[in-house]
Design brief:
It is a single chain. It is globular and about 65 Å long. With 367 residues, the chain is α+β, with helices and mostly antiparallel strands. Keywords: Transferase. It comes from Agrococcus carbonis.
């Protein structure tokens, strides 16, 4: 397919979605009220597949309730005759996409009902719906249909993606850094003024979002986050463990005039808002503690504005985070990293004592 063709052409969207007949299940769209049953299904699948995580009902509710989510058209739940939920499908999109328009497939089948062809038909429905979404997006951009698989997932899941035409595109590492016992000391990082480390607070939240969008502009697969995306899904967020670095004396005139400064940052600077240049935002996933066998703080987003790289700002935020984890009695620090991260983050984490525990693969169809 010609990559210069309109997205409506490249997506090759079907007029109707394929029917799911395998397993003789009753199908309907999800609602936020399905969060309790869906959480049970998700965690049952995770346990069977040896996944290193579990979901809380609140996390599921947040995912289903995102204000841009169109559950009526982009989700399906499969029930047995007695009402037990045994299969789920969600096609997730992101309103902030500006360089690649994306649709990701999430879901699965209860371990008791695998081997009946349900998963294959569910994925076919998801891919067809993803093509419809991309075709209707009106965004004349490259398109991507994606799905994730943990390295420990059954081989059949990886084969299912390959058979459906998705290709392994990106690899991620789940890293752990011990904080107790004979763990190396957490580094002391001094910042040269006018850079200053401060605890995260609502007053710097929007400035942190702008910093994140700038920091990840050159990262493969990353797209700007809208304000709604940025604040969604924070049920496990630990602001008391999170830190940002601000520039107390930014050269506002130079930054406003620089072609590389995004419109959001430019407007914020002109309005006198603080300039966040690095950040480490962390969460406390207590439901995962017994699964992993240790308590930990999780660094969900970490980055530095591109103009401030090389000044140890993100390292200072990460070190402060690790110290906060340790002070709270956590046994380890955990984070995920793209193995081809352009900022060289993988090497930095290794130097700090992080080692790989798990991995995952993103499969995709590029349009």
């Amino acid at each position: 397919m010609d990559e210069r063709a309109p997205i409506a052409e490249r997506a090759q969207a079907p007029e109707t979605l394929p029917e799911i007949t395998a397993g003789d299940l009753r199908w309907r769209p999800a609602t936020v009220d399905d969060a309790p049953q869906l959480t049970v299904l998700t965690n049952t699948m995770a346990e069977a597949d040896g996944a290193p995580f579990r979901e809380t009902e609140e996390e599921t509710r947040e995912e289903l309730g995102a204000e841009w989510r169109d559950l009526e058209h982009d989700s399906l739940l499969g029930f047995e005759a007695d009402g037990r939920l045994v299969a789920s499908a969600l096609v997730a999109t992101f309103p902030g996409d500006t360089s690649t328009v994306r649709a990701f497939a999430f879901g699965g089948v209860h371990p008791d009902r695998r081997g009946e062809g349900i998963g294959r038909e569910v994925l076919a429905w998801q891919l067809a719906r993803a093509r419809q979404i991309l075709a209707a997006s009106g965004k004349e951009l490259p398109g991507r249909i994606g799905a994730y698989a943990e390295d420990d997932d059954p081989v059949s899941k990886h084969r299912l993606f390959l058979h459906a035409g998705l290709e392994p595109r990106r690899y991620y590492s789940d890293l752990k850094r011990p904080l107790t016992g004979d763990a190396p000391p957490i580094p002391e990082v001094e910042l040269a003024p006018p850079l200053r480390l401060v605890p995260f607070s609502p007053e710097v939240d929007e400035a942190t979002r702008l910093a994140h969008n700038d920091a990840f502009r050159d990262h493969w697969g990353s797209e700007p986050q809208t304000a709604e995306q940025w604040t969604n899904g924070r049920s496990e967020f630990a602001p008391e463990w999170s830190f940002v670095v601000v520039d107390d004396e930014p050269d506002v005139d130079a930054l406003v005039a620089a072609p590389s400064t995004d419109a959001g940052t430019r407007a914020a600077l002109e309005a006198g808002a603080p300039l966040v240049v690095a950040y480490a935002l962390n969460s406390r996933y207590e439901a995962d503690f017994p699964v992993r066998g240790y308590s930990f703080g999780y660094t969900g987003v970490l980055g530095t504005r591109r103009a401030y790289r090389g000044r140890k700002a993100a390292l200072a935020a990460l070190a402060a985070s690790m110290r906060a984890f340790a002070d709270a009695g956590m046994e380890a620090a955990v984070l995920d990293v793209d193995t081809e991260n352009p900022s060289g983050a993988h090497g930095l984490y290794a130097s700090l004592g992080y080692v790989k525990e798990h991995g995952s693969t993103m499969y995709s169809i590029e349009l």
